[in-house]
Design goal:
The chain has 354 residues and is α/β, with parallel strands linked by helices. Helix content is 15%, strand content 11%. The chain binds 2-acetamido-2-deoxy-beta-D-glucopyranose (6 copies). This is Keratocan.
Length: 354
């Protein structure tokens, strides 16, 4: 008896819900037809292709909707989600009133450099984050607003960086250009000039055979994996006093290409040189904590020679010891056992992979 009651009650609620849906579906086009202003009188203005969360009026969700064009963005929007669409072009009109925008995600669309109206981003004077990953751009868009803090351009087809496009970006902290088609000739001494607050520079998976000519001095993370870099110039890292992470995996570095003390960088904590053509362990600094040398051609290792300090005796303070904790040497031509002098030098080692 009770059970039947429940069933009846449930179907009543269901009917009411269904009726509601039908009602909302019908009512909206009526307002849209009269004029968009009428609709905004009842709610706030919202492009019909998008979702405007009622509790979060500064955000606009237009992602994953097969959009080919960007709608007119209302002036109140700060956060704009346009990722995972089929957008090919950006017209200035879309952003004419959206000058408060702080964050735009346009990743995974079909944007080409020709499709972007010149200057459309530069007019967004409050823009902090611009995400354009997984598009078909051939150039870094220019000009860009001086306010930018993050610019992500990974997985495009970029071969060209317009001169001085970065020169006014004093607040940019992260520049991601990985998986593009940058050549040595794309990068000049001036390319990254002006990026005085840049922390992360990612140029992995491009077509470089040389190190970038000049890297901004405050960079902490420099990623250059998956290029064809053969050598590093003498004193290359001398001006980079804050460098913490350096990745050069999957390049063509040889012993001859490395000046003797090039990796004796006092700030460096993490050095990755996997999949290169080294036959010797390069000299490292006393502060380095992680060293990846797997898949090279190293055939012997002499702990006394690679120790950044004279091999410490029995009585030594921990603080004076080399900081190395993790060492990868697998995929080389070294056979266990681990040389005893290596253990004497690097007493803080927690893991060594041979
Ligand atoms: C931007 O969109 C891409 C594609 O969906 C997503 O992977 C990424 O996490 C988004 N970025 C942010 C910061 O929301
Ligand atoms: C920008 O806002 C003004 C004033 O509200 C309005 O007249 C104009 O049509 C808007 N522009 C666009 C492109 O929506
Ligand atoms: C850079 O950031 C600082 C601190 O947030 C801010 O005062 C300054 O206006 C920003 N510069 C630009 C060009 O937006
Ligand atoms: C380098 O290339 C390998 C193989 O194509 C890929 O698995 C890896 O994710 C790439 N790494 C970077 C940092 O681009
Ligand atoms: C490494 O550099 C430091 C100063 O940064 C210096 O004291 C030390 O002698 C150098 N080590 C080698 C092996 O050149
Ligand atoms: C390692 O190098 C030191 C100093 O160059 C040398 O005295 C020692 O014999 C070498 N050790 C081995 C096992 O070759």
């Amino acid at each position: 008896m009770r059970q039947t009651m429940n069933v009846k009650l449930c179907s009543c609620i269901l009917v009411v819900l269904l009726a509601n849906i039908v009602w909302t579906r019908n009512i909206r086009p009526i307002y849209d037809q009269t004029s968009s202003y009428d609709w905004s009188f009842y709610s706030f203005e919202c492009p019909q292709q998008c979702f405007c969360p009622p509790g979060f009026p500064s955000a606009l969700y237009c992602d994953s909707r097969e959009l080919k064009e960007i709608p007119i963005i209302p002036a109140r929007i700060w956060y704009l989600y346009l990722q995972n669409n089929l957008i090919e072009t950006i017209r200035g009109e879309s952003f004419a009133n959206a000058t408060q925008l702080k964050w735009i995600n346009l990743s995974n669309n079909k944007l080409t450099s020709n499709g972007i109206e010149k200057g459309v981003f530069a007019r967004l004077k409050n823009l902090l984050y611009l995400f354009l990953e997984d598009n078909e751009l051939e150039e870094v868009p220019a000009p860009l607003p001086a306010s930018l803090e993050q610019l992500r351009l990974a997985r495009n087809k970029i071969t060209t960086i317009p001169g001085e496009v970065f020169s006014n970006l004093e607040n940019l902290t992260m520049l991601d250009l990985h998986h593009n088609k940058l050549l040595d000739s794309t990068l000049s001494d001036a390319t990254f000039q002006g990026l005085s607050n840049l922390i992360q520079l990612n140029i992995a998976q491009n077509s470089l055979t040389r190190m970038p000519p000049i890297v901004p001095p405050n960079v902490m993370q420099l990623f250059l994996d998956n290029n064809s870099i053969e050598a590093i110039p003498e004193n290359y890292f001398n001006a980079m006093l804050k460098l913490l992470f350096l990745r050069l995996n999957n390049n063509k570095l040889t012993d001859e290409g490395l000046p003797a003390k090039v990796f004796n960088i006092s700030s460096l904590l993490d050095l990755q040189l996997s999949n290169n053509e080294l036959t010797k362990v390069p000299a490292i600094g006393i502060h380095l904590e992680h060293l990846h040398l797997d898949n090279n051609r190293i055939n012997s290792i002499n702990g006394t020679q690679i120790c950044p300090i004279p091999v410490p005796g029995d009585h030594v303070y921990d603080m004076d010891l080399p900081r190395l904790r993790y060492l990868r040497l697998d995929g080389n031509e070294i056979k266990p056992p681990i040389p005893f002098d290596l253990m004497l030098c690097f007493r803080l080692l927690q893991a060594i992979v041979i």
